[in-house]
Design brief:
The chain has 250 residues and is an alpha/beta fold. The chain has a domain of 168 residues: Alpha/Beta hydrolase fold, catalytic domain (Rossmann fold). Helices cover 48% and strands 13% of the residues. A five-stranded mixed beta sheet has the order 1-2-4-6-7, sandwiched between helices. Helix 2 links the parallel strand 1 and strand 2. Helix 1 packs across helix 2 and helix 4 packs antiparallel against helix 7. The longest helix has 24 residues. The two termini are 30 Å apart.
Length: 250
């Protein structure tokens, strides 16, 4: 966050004189600020710094990061900042809290599992990449005959695992400031479940809240959905079907 704020201040110092000259000449113009990914976070901070001087300012953040502003400030920007997120884009969901939550769940699950951890993770990764739609539950049944290495079931091991689980599940960063996505959030979501190599995906748009992005979604497309091409495709598809979805995003 500090880096984004410093970048926004640098840009402000660089363009403030030119903006004054332009709006003196064209007072009826509207200032629009855009950014992608971390640039979207910078754009949102820059728009806040400029809002008092340019009341009609609008900011559009493509692939907006999930941890940019405090909750109160994010709520105050809902009328002039618009954040766009495609489907399961991981950058919109990355935060200290979401990473800790994912870590806790993984460590706790591994501690409670009596199978070979290496083979379990390897098989899960392989089947996730191969199959377009694969749940952990179905995978575990299909691979049970393949994964036959077990760990010790002694009382000592059980006690150690229980202690680790309790420590991990109770250790969180509650003292850290809770930062969220700014402004009005538009989620560009696929109309059906998609896999890593899905083609011809159709998208719709809907307004949602930052609470929908509080946890990481582990999915084959969690990184691909952050690419500019994914946003270009999703936005183009939404625009093409504007008449059908306009009531959802007004």
């Amino acid at each position: 966050l500090k880096g984004m704020h410093l970048a926004a201040k640098y840009i402000l110092d660089d363009i403030s004189t030119r903006l004054t000259e332009i709006f003196t000449k064209y007072p009826n113009y509207t200032l629009i600020i855009c950014g992608y990914s971390l640039g979207a976070g910078i754009a949102s901070i820059l728009s806040i710094l400029l809002k008092s001087e340019y009341s009609h300012l609008k900011c559009y953040g493509i692939a907006m990061p999930g941890s940019v502003l405090s909750e109160n400030l994010a709520h105050a920007t809902r009328h002039f900042i618009y954040s766009y997120v495609v489907d399961v884009d991981m950058i919109a969901r990355v935060s200290i809290r979401s990473l800790e939550h994912l870590r806790d769940r993984i460590v706790d699950a591994l501690n409670k599992c009596n199978r070979s951890k290496l083979r379990l993770l390897t098989m899960t990764l392989a089947r996730t990449l191969i199959k377009r739609q694969q749940t952990f539950r179905s995978m575990s049944y299909q691979t049970e005959t393949l994964i036959d290495d077990t760990v010790s079931n002694s009382a000592t091991t059980a006690n150690i695992n229980e202690s680790i689980s309790q420590i991990v599940l109770t250790h969180h960063s509650g003292e850290r400031a809770h930062l969220v996505m700014p402004g009005t959030i538009i989620h560009l979501y696929s109309t059906h479940r998609v896999g890593l190599f899905s083609r011809g995906v159709s998208y719709r748009a809907g307004i949602t809240t930052y609470n929908q992005f509080s946890q990481l979604i582990v999915h084959p497309r969690m990184w691909l959905d952050h690419f500019p091409a994914s946003y270009s495709t999703a936005l183009a598809d939404v625009i093409e079907n504007y008449d059908q979805i306009s009531q959802q995003i007004v």
